[in-house]
Design brief:
The complex is a heterotetramer of chains A (525), B (506), C (599) and D (152). In chain A, 71% of the residues lie in helices and 2% in strands. Chain A has 525 residues and is mostly helical. Chain A has one domain. With 506 residues, chain B is mainly alpha-helical. Chain B has a domain at 290-506. Chain B has 20 helices and two strands. Chain B has a two-stranded antiparallel sheet with strand order 1-2. In chain B, α13 packs antiparallel against α14 and α14 (340-371) packs antiparallel against α16. Classes of the chains: A mainly alpha (525), B mainly alpha (506), C mainly alpha (599), D mainly alpha (152). Chains A and C meet through α7, α14, α19, α20 and α22 of A and α5, α6 and α20 of C.
Chain lengths: 525, 506, 599, 152
Amino acid sequence: MIHFDVSPQLLALYIPLLGALLISLAGRWPNLRELVTLLTAGVLLYVVAGMAPAVLADGFWASFAKAPGLKLAEVLPGVWLELKVEPLGMLFALIASSLWILNSIYSIGYMRGNHEKNQTRFYVCFALAIASVMGLAFAGNLFTLFVFYEALTLTTYPLVAHKGSAEAIRSARTYLGILVVTSVCFLLAGIIGTYVFTGGDMTFRPGGVFRRALADGSLTAPTLGILFVLYMYGIGKAALMPVHRWLPAAMVAPTPVSALLHAVAVVKAGVFTVLKVIVYVFGPAVLVRYGVGDWLIYVAGATILIASCIALFQDNLKRRLAYSTVSQLSYVIIAAALLSPLSITAAALHIAAHAFGKITLFFAAGSIYTAAHKTEISQLDGIGRRMPITMAAFTIGSLSMIGLPPTAGFVSKWYLLQATWETDAPFVLVVVILSTLLNAAYFLPIVYRAFFVAEAKPHHEPHQSSADGNFGDHGDHHGHDAHDHGEAPWPVVVALSCTALATIVFFFYSDLAIGLANQLRSGLP
Amino acid sequence: MLDAFEIVPNLPVLVVTTPLIGGILTIAMGRGKGPWAWATLITGVVFYFTVLLMQQVLAAKTGFISYELGNWPRQWGIEYRVDALNAFILLTVAGVGFVTTLYAQKSVEKEIPQDRHNFFYAVWVLAICGLLGITVTGDAFNVYVLLEISSLTVYALIAMGKDMNRQALTASLRYLILGSVGASFILLGIGYLMMVTGTLNMEDMHDRLAALPDIVHHRTVLVAFAFLLCGLGLKMALFPLHMWLPKAYTYAPSAVSALLSATATKVGIYMAFRFLFTIFGVGFSFVAMPANLVLSVAACAGILVTGVTAVRQTNLKRMLAYSSVGQLGYIVAGFSLANVHGVAGSVVHIFNHAVMKGGMFMAAGAIMYRLGRCDLRSIRGLGKRMPLTMAAFVAGGLGLVGFPLTAGFISKWYLVQGALEAPHMWPVAAVVLVGSLLAVAYTWRVVEAAYFQEPEGESALVTEAPLSMVAPMWILIGASVYFGVSATFTGEISMRAAKSLLGGAP
Amino acid sequence: MTDAVGLPPPGIILVLGGLLLPLLRGLGPAVALLLPLLTLGFIWGIPDDLTVTMPFMGQYDLTVLAFNPPTKVFATIFAVMAFAGALFAHPITGLDSERGRRWRVELPAAFVYAGSAICVTFAGDILSLFIFWELMAIGSTTVIWSAGTKAAGRAGYRYALVHFVGGVLLMAGILAKVFALQGAGVADPLALHHFFFGAAGFEGLSFGAGDAAAWLILLGILVNAAAPPLGSWLADAYPEASESGTVFLSAFTTKTAVYVLMLLFAGTQLLIYVGLLMAVYGIVYAILENDMRRILAYSIVNQVGFMVCGIGIGTAMALNGAAAHAFAHIVYKALLLMSAGSVLYMTGKRKCTDLGGLYHSMPITMTCGIIGALAISSFPLTSGFVTKSMINQAAADEHIALAWFTLTAASAGVFLHAGIKFPWFVFFQKDSGLRPPDPPWNMRAAMIFFAAVCILLGVPGLYGPLYAILPFPAAAGETLYAPYTVPHVINQLQLLLFSGLAFFALLPVLKRTLTITLDADWFYRRLFPGVWQHLLRPVVLAFREFFDYLFGNIPQMVKDTVYSPPQEARMFKEWGLGGAMVVITGFLFVYLVLGYIAA
Amino acid sequence: MTGALGIYNYWIYVVLMMIGLYGVIAKPNLIKQAIALGLFQTGIFLYYISMAVIDGGTAPVWTTILDGAQKYEGPYDNPLPHVLILTAIVVSVSVLAVALALIINIKRTYGTIEYDEIEAMDQADKRADYQRGQVTDAADDVEHKLEGHHHA
């Protein structure tokens, strides 16, 4: 049933699985357990990075279209669990595997600093989630993609519900509910529909799988349109409005998990899937010709703006970040929906750029929580003086979200704006301009507060968190003097410094990401 | 050795006679572990026979094996006829029967007084005998007889739960009355068919019905069809004729619930296949008669209503019982599509649901074994105390949801594919998908309670169920995962069965 | 052309050095004074034909260091300004004082700001230009915020929003052009010369869609140049910065915009009118204003108007004038703001009506302020005289009568508000009773330094080095421009005299007690917040309500109906046996009927 | 015998079935229900037997053996349904036996054989069972606890 092979993509799948096993065995000895996590992450990055040169090589694309995938198991007659390396997946896998290391370092600091329970389960599920991401990244066909997509939902569920509090369970239920409802009702229907209409062809290939069916008339434009809608709303992880609510709900999770959700795995998996579906299942040319994807531009544009506006209201830091993510994800979607070579590049790049920026922001939020037990923006007065590194990193992350140089966000925005001219899309241009305004509008006050507003008097009562505030039950449990703190534990600081640095470094050395994205573009017809 | 006893040529009859004789002999096996050991032996042997039979069928050039009892020609005597479909069902029934027998030992020890063990296992083996008999026979009246054998034994098995909860008695009586009415309807239907065709052999019936000049307007055939459909609906617990089921499954001894959920209703569905497809034929059942309409509406309503009902339950066994009705709805919805993928989905789901739900009932039984009850409150925090059991339950639950790489996904895939292929039947696809969401809802209540809440009372002290319960449970759950990852075997068999049912190549 | 890889552009010294300053602890203030000088030395030390490129985004070669014609003059004055500003901002009382704490944020930010501005002048391609352009916005916002007041917080916020939007407009324009160039197969689509929109025969822009790129770029730059109505951020934000912050702010943003306009839009007629509008607008608002630093802020708009107008005229003379005027303007405007800043620092008061009579106790501040005021009014023997007159001259040479008249009138107006009004109200007029001493040594030193520069540049014969680094230097043996001609000097003195008379004649009218004058910043101070508060916010709230309903209430309702425990006894009642039988019979009946109908 | 009367035993079979059905539906006494079930099945037996009858036919037995000399060659009834129904009767009797066994057990444990009373008891049992296991909603449950804590 299963072919054992030393193909790197298979290794990438097995390493985190093996890691999960070892972590669970090492559960009794926290230091060993964390060591295993870090080692696994390191080995994974080594393996994944080792695959990149081949993908970047000339002529990769030509061979990609022809080369057979690595078949793991025949699930149904003719339906294989299949892995195949392509540039987009490569990019995604690189992001996830490199950020996993940093996230693990961060987790160590965070989980210990906050005395979280069930840490072994946490690390195991984390490793499993990364395994799902690897499977997703290297999925060779729609079916495999779906399998790992669902696996990711399941493996991240325990992470979201980690605290086990009423709030956590309810939020986790929302998380699971929306993701499962969309994926089962729409995505699966779309995939089976694809299977039916293409006569069993679900392999990712440049140009899409529908051409023959469209040519011989067995698939009509309206049906194609319905399928497209099913896909776009089926991929709930991409948080296209109105199925974005799981993201703010999932904020209840410990911060490393939020970072995982927002930067490394889950939402990235969503937009990655969107992009993959557009590029490899429908094919931009087909979508342009039949015009069934135009609505997506407007929906994504509306999502960008509305989510940003909602973010303005949020006093809870992580919620604000969550809505920011919703908005940023639609950047990827809107770029993908423009369906031009440049815009596809922009979409792929924004996946990477947003990952680094957003993980920094979440790390910073978690760092604040760990050190100061503060969750609301209104509590952050003057915190930049106590935690200069954290807040500096936060600032860098914010700049990246706004798309300013010298941060990663600029690179993808560069391509996106260029694509608006390529496709002559003034609407998108306006959206980007307004969104820049809004992003700045909700990030700058935080930075300002942190650095330029004097800290409240020591005898001030801790700010009562609002009704929807996360961690609301924690404020009084820790008899911690919130006014006597410095930076968070060193692993936390190290991790967030690294990601902040990466956000800047990405600006200067984006060659690898651009190379992969261009590979993708060169494969477009 | 096999050849010496001429086992292979006689396999079709051996799968019935072995448990029949063995079952009766069980009574004489004393009071210790004897009856259980004997029952295990018998079911094991039968399982082995069904595996051989499966090989025979797959190897047969015609695609089926015909066995005439006592060498009477089929016009006079009883013909046992095994093709891909019933070989597969036989395998399922015998396999699950064997595994549940393994499981039964501890469970029965706890739930049924020692002095009745020999009766219990005797009836148990006979029930399996009846179910296998229904599946193997090619004679309509023989179906009725064996149906009653299995039903009577099942009534008895359910009633054995009375020592745990007296409601087992009323549940059993309820099932008895409704089941007997259903069986009577079937008997009546067979009678009308016999009146028209003058034969009891299924193949012959089909040929003669097909030869009738104006079958569509033939009142007798119509009435026969209606009675049969109604009777079969009762036996396979088609919504809204499922009313006997929840109570029966809830209060039966745990092992019995596992066995019944996996086999009894499945055999009912097998009968429906035989009557609707083999005897009446697709053209009559689904084109001339509105069977597809009635069945798919009933099935879809069942999926939704029982799904919601299942979510409301606090007792795991009752929840699983309602879930079973919903899952049977999938199967019925599948074959009511009357196309290859739909029917294949049904067939494969018979198997998949048997292993998943069997495993889950076993898990519920294991909790019963340790805690004496299995409700949401008592399972709090059990994820840590009984990790294997709860993991099995959750894995099974994911199967019911139809998560990929579980067996349930395979069924769902076929069913949705079938629904999309059939003209104007896409709502069935929608219902199938929505139904799986309801499965998420009830599975997740268990997950939340078991993994994210702290245990209370005695739950905090329990340990994992004994190996003899956990191992069989995981055999079934493991099978459900294995056949979710690699469904080539089940998929191909069910496609073959579906094609032969629909009148294509066997 | 030499090509050195790895050499950073000079401004980087300031940027990185500035970022490192807070880490140097006690050494910081000293190093802060050295860094600008180092930068200046670097600017003058590198050969004029050097270019440095850097690979970027895997497909571009960014020219981060190249000398464009106006580079030297702008880079020089920016570096000088950074030095004087650093001197002025020096944390005299040590890093732990209030001022010292502010210094730790403000000066690094100011250095990032100044350094980026210098980098913009050295940018040899549009992308690196843009990158540093955006960095300036970040730096300047931080400078404003450093003031630490609530008003500064809000003003800085608005400032940042305006600039980021301006930035994205500029970026959109750049990309429109880049895309078009790539489509045309141009190998180096980022090269600056593709963006010389004004180069094509001094033509105005057409309004066609094809010029979208040019329009967007122009719009983006004009935001930074503070052209009304895009420029009200200036008067809104600058006065809210700290006394030293404003000094920095006055120098870089608008002048960088002038530099970029000079590069890209030289000769675009539209700019003449924009410039004139700015000149007049600045005067009008400055006269109406009461806050001393806001008066000076509006005066920046007015002065930049001169430069923009010069760029619009586009002749060598005009461009030289614009560049030279930018140079001089940075010096005297900084001087004026230092003077105002000193007053603010010593008194804590900012409104003209609260001040007066300070000449008693702040003689140095007063003197320097008056020198700055004279310079801005183009008084002969000051820097303003030798620079601004070039623009007027160019207007006259090109026979652009409207420009000439307006500029001349504006010159008078400048004297009115900045030359007389500011010193008069602050240092003379009625006695406010305040007797603060002159500010600390570093502030005095900075003022004296710039006052000296103002004078020196105005002394005949000493302005030569400035003229030598202008974009269009004189050919060998020729004079670039001779400001000190008799008619010119007399004209100017007449003009100033009459303006002065007018001021004192109108003094009762000019005694304003208005606290704030709203202009186009009304849009983002009142209108946008109003729109947000009364239109958008409700809509967004409604959306949130909708989502809450969709994902909160509906699932809750479903949950309530699905999960809720059956409370009533009857709900535990299953269908009785009889009921079940009835259902069965009914099913049979229905089926028979259906079958009958079907048959 | 022709017309409607000619198939009068079919009518009787229907009437018997209906009586049985009515009994099952309407009678609260379990014994009566069992009897009604028996009637219901008997109706079906009658149907089968009637089906086998041929106009003027005799019993399908070797009359020569009985009679010795006389040889009757006329039509005889179809023996197959008779055989079948013998089996069915056995089945029916077994069902009745099981039913009665159950009823005896019910009488022992519940103390009554009135359906309504049993149902009421079952209902109470079930309700208790439900409430014992009730965790309306894992999340809400914890919340209630927390709230209680706060109030305290």
